Amino acid sequence: MQRIVLITGCSSGIGLDAARAMALRGWRVFATCRKESDCERLRSEGLESFRLDYDDEASIATAMDEIAARGGRLDALFNNGAFACPGAVEDLPRDALRAIFETNLFGYHDLTRRVIPLMRAQGEGRIVNCSSVLGLVGIKWRGAYVATKFAMEGLTDVLRLEMAGTGIKVILIEPGPITSSIRVNAIPHFERWIDWQNSARKSEYESLRSRLYNSSGPDRFELPASAVTAKLIHALESPRPKPRYYVTLPTYLSGLMRRIMPTRLLDWAVSKG
User: Fold this and answer.
1) Is-contact 248 177, C-beta < 8 A?
2) Best label site of 12, 151, 165, 255, fewest CB within 10 Å?
3) Alpha helix (H) ranges present in the chain?
């Protein structure tokens, strides 16, 4: 029987690479995007694509109806879509945090809860959440994104414990710097929510804004999206998937530092990174 995977955030980057790769490996792929125009582009490539927006509860319900209409089976879910809202924590309005949590965490959770009954009925399934190196350690100016990823790590860990014995495997992938559009996509969120001109840190924002608006080329240690896909393949196809998959050297280093360093030393190391 052909295995079926639902992948979110497939308009570009990690999601798009994963959708193409899993289709080539013989999986039936439901490749979802926030915008219908992106879904049309993916359908023109031969992928099955329909709309799913984590920030829109109705679109999640409609996506589940689509899955039911296409057979109602789902062997795996790869929760992938997310965005960033750079800025100092003291400058983050409450609504900015609410908006990023809706997409980066609450949408994941909503979709996962809707998928679990299908997997329970099948007696098996894989749920893979795309976290981040920033779910292991925090860095300055990324407080909103860091908060969503730390929360995701905790929620996913508990779900993994609770799903033991059900046949449903719950897995985290934690990428470091990966080639994607996350910097460009963060600009409208920064402009909407961060009143940097009236911030006590106004002078410090000059450097942040320069990095945000001007590409300086690939980050140090940056890997292509295919590096995440390689971990996803193991997570979905191995009979014994790992609970966690690190991607890129910074993730391995951060995981190690978090385990062995006292907090003050870790703060110093991260601030120098």
Assistant:
1) yes
2) 165
3) 13-24, 36-44, 57-69, 94-101, 107-122, 143-162, 182-193, 202-213, 226-237, 249-260, 263-272
Name the residue among 158, 7, 156, 14 with its Cα closest to residue 83: 14
Distances (CA, A) of 243 to 102, 161, 232, 235, 236: 25, 10, 12, 9, 12
For the chain, how big is the Rg over CA atoms in Å? Answer: 19
Q: Percent of the chain beyond pLDDT 70?
A: 100
User: Quick one: pLDDT at residue 219?
Assistant: 83
Q: Which residues are catalytic?
A: 145
- Please give the angle made by the CA atoms of 120, 172 and 222, to the nearest 5 degrees: 145
- Domain parsing of the chain, residue ranges: 4-272
* DSSP secondary structure string for all residues of 161-210: HHTTTTTEEEEEEEE-SBSSSHHHHHHHHHHHH--GGGSTTHHHHHHHHH
Is it the case that residue 13 has pLDDT exceeding 70? yes
Q: Taking residues 185-189, what's their average pLDDT? A: 96
pTM passes above 0.90 = yes
Encoded tokens for 208 = 């942040």
For 126-139, write each residue's pLDDT tens digit: 999 999 999 999 99
Alpha carbon separation from 248 to 19, 110, 162, 245 (Å, rounded): 21, 29, 29, 10
Report which residue type is found at 187: I
- Quote the CA–CA distance of 134 and 82 in Å, as a whole number: 13
In this predicted model, what pLDDT tens digit does every residue of 193-238 receive, in sequence order?
Answer: 999 999 999 999 999 999 999 987 788 899 999 999 999 999 999 9
Q: Quick one: fold of 4-272?
A: Rossmann fold (3.40.50)
Give the 3-state secondary structure of residue 116: helix
